[in-house]
Design brief:
The structure holds two protein chains of two kinds. Chain A is an alpha+beta fold. Chain A is 27% helix and 24% strand. Chain A contains nine helices and 17 strands. In chain A, the strands form four sheets. In chain A, strands 5, 6, 7, 8, 11, 12, 13, 16 and 17 form a nine-stranded mixed sheet that branches. Chain A has a four-stranded antiparallel sheet with strand order 2-3-1-4. Chain A has a two-stranded antiparallel sheet with strand order 9-10. In chain A, α7 crosses α8. Chain B folds into two domains: 78 residues, no CATH class; 65 residues, Archaeosine Trna-guanine Transglycosylase, Chain: A, domain 4, CATH 2.30.130. In chain B, a hairpin with a 3-residue loop joins β1 and β2. Chain B is globular and about 50 Å long. The chains are: A alpha+beta, B alpha+beta. Chains A and B meet through α6 and β7 of A and β2, β3, α2, β9 and α4 of B. The complex binds S-adenosylmethionine. S-adenosylmethionine (SAM) binds next to α5 and β6 of chain A. The site of S-adenosylmethionine (SAM) has 18 residues of chain A, from α5 and β6.
Chain lengths: 301, 151
């Protein structure tokens, strides 16, 4: 276990079965798709996928399948007809925790390229309104292309966070799927190098704290806020949630996820977090066979 | 928001040309930008839009092209299933030929105008039918390329 690459070595105290985790990092994660019943009957979508040689396996999450194909999923007829959205199985979790309902007003604060925003829309039967926001123009283009491909009508796209979001506390639910270091995607290559390592920002926790507090202020009293990342680092996860709990009257809600999970941490590297942080949910790639994730389900009191 | 006579004209076009019942579009607002009309699910929450700077809203529905109405690919994909007329049922290889050559022969007695492209019940978008027997590809470039690679 000594040869765990940094920063993963510092997580081995809390990752369940760390040996198995490290061993699993050289395997590829299987691809998954969500099917989009707005565009065609489910039976037709499944039939076409079968015609195209895609082998599907159940996942236990509605609309999500593991999809084995010798062809790139993005080149399938089913893809260009808007019948499917290829995405990690774990990316369903924040949306399921958010639990949006038809007719509501929902904000996805960091929405591009739209995997979760379009899933939210689907759970709302394409009714109500989803505001899908992002900071980067280039990523907004991909987001808009996905909304069109899936045939969604209930979504409004906005660019940037601070200036253009509305005043007041209008939203029934807000999702903050924050920019993060992406450690849940890490794989180890043949030369022990980390694959999918992101370069750049070292100020992520500060950005994440800013986004989460801003998002909280936009939720209606009694409304729901979900914070999620695809990283393992507690400084980008529980520490961010702890910050919100100190700044605002927010409360964590329990949740029983449909995939194997571990409770949030209440301590990391000598720093203690609010004890309710154990209500956060952690998902490890070797346990769920998909990208590692973190989420917190928060209510505004 | 569109004036109600423009709304009627556009929805009337879908009904007359393709037989999509006008009530299909009752739950939606039509919103116009310079060349494109968007279909947006109606909801009291949309009031909020007035206080925000938005990039786009809803699904592109129809465009004015050279004075004519042209339904967008994505709206046809979404609502084409409700159509009962002006539907060209093609094989995937004919569709691919249409994308590659830009035009194929189609022996049908459609009146000139846009027709819906279907293969095995799947709706891809629309293209322009001109008498006699000419079908001109009007699918977007990216989709054309993707379809050519499928066959
Ligand atoms: C993890 S990705 C979101 C993935 C997306 N939710 C999905 O499911 O497809 C994080 C996103 O946050 C955006 N972002 C970064 N800083 C932001 C900010 N200050 N405000 C809004 N979005 C931001 C990035 O451009 C990026 O698209």
């Amino acid at each position: 276990m000594e040869d765990a690459p940094s920063p993963l070595a510092s997580y081995l105290d809390f990752i369940p079965d760390p040996e198995e985790y490290l061993g699993s990092l050289t395997d590829f994660l299987p691809p998954y798709i969500r099917i989009n019943p707005i565009k065609a009957p489910v039976s037709r979508i499944l039939g076409l996928l079968q015609e195209e040689g895609v082998r599907l396996a159940d996942t236990g999450i509605s609309w999500f399948y593991q999809a084995a194909s010798s062809r790139v999923l993005g080149s399938l007829r089913a893809y260009h007809l808007g019948y499917i959205y290829p995405q990690a199985l774990s990316s369903a979790l924040p949306v399921l925790a958010l639990d949006p309902e038809p007719g509501e007003l929902v904000l996805d604060m960091c929405a591009a390229p739209g995997g979760k925003a379009t899933h939210i829309s689907q759970l709302m039967d394409d009714t109500g309104t989803v505001v899908a926001n992002d900071r980067k123009y280039r990523r907004i283009t991909a987001l808009t292309a996905n909304i069109k491909r899936l045939g969604i009508t209930n979504t409004v796209v906005t660019l940037n966070s601070r200036t253009i979001l509305p005043a007041g506390q209008p939203f029934d639910r807000v999702l903050v799927d924050a920019p993060c270091s992406g450690e849940g995607r890490y794989r180890i290559g043949p030369h022990r190098e980390i694959i999918h390592r992101k370069r750049g920002r070292t100020d992520l926790p500060a950005i994440q704290k800013g986004l989460l507090v801003k998002a909280f202020d936009l939720v209606k009293p009694g409304g729901m806020l979900v914070y999620s990342t695809c990283t393992i680092n507690p400084l980008e996860n529980e520490a961010v949630v702890h910050h919100l709990l100190q700044q605002r009257s927010a409360r964590l809600l329990p949740w029983t996820p449909p995939l194997e999970w571990s409770p949030g941490l209440t301590e990391f590297m000598g720093k203690e977090y609010d004890t309710s942080c154990r209500l956060c949910r952690r998902f490890y790639p070797h346990r769920i066979r998909s990208v590692g994730f973190f989420l917190a389900r928060i209510v505004k009191v | 928001m569109l004036r109600s006579d423009t709304r009627e004209e556009i929805i009337g076009y879908w009904e007359e040309r393709f037989g999509v019942p006008a009530r299909t579009f009752d739950p939606y607002l039509l919103m116009a930008s310079s060349r494109t009309v968007y279909l947006v699910r109606e909801n009291p929450g949309l009031e909020l839009l007035k206080t925000m700077r938005i990039q786009n809203a809803g699904l592109p529905f129809i465009r004015k092209v050279a004075g004519y109405l042209k339904p967008t690919t994505f709206a046809v994909q979404r609502f084409g299933a409700w159509a009962g007329k002006c539907i060209a049922n093609l094989s995937i290889s004919d569709l691919s030929r249409l994308c590659r050559d830009g035009e194929i022969k189609l022996e049908k007695d459609f009146s000139p105008g846009y027709v819906i492209l279907r293969t095995d019940g799947d709706t891809w978008g629309c293209s322009l039918f001109l008498s006699p027997d000419r079908l001109l590809c009007r699918l977007p470039k990216n989709l054309r390329k993707a379809i050519m690679q499928m066959a």
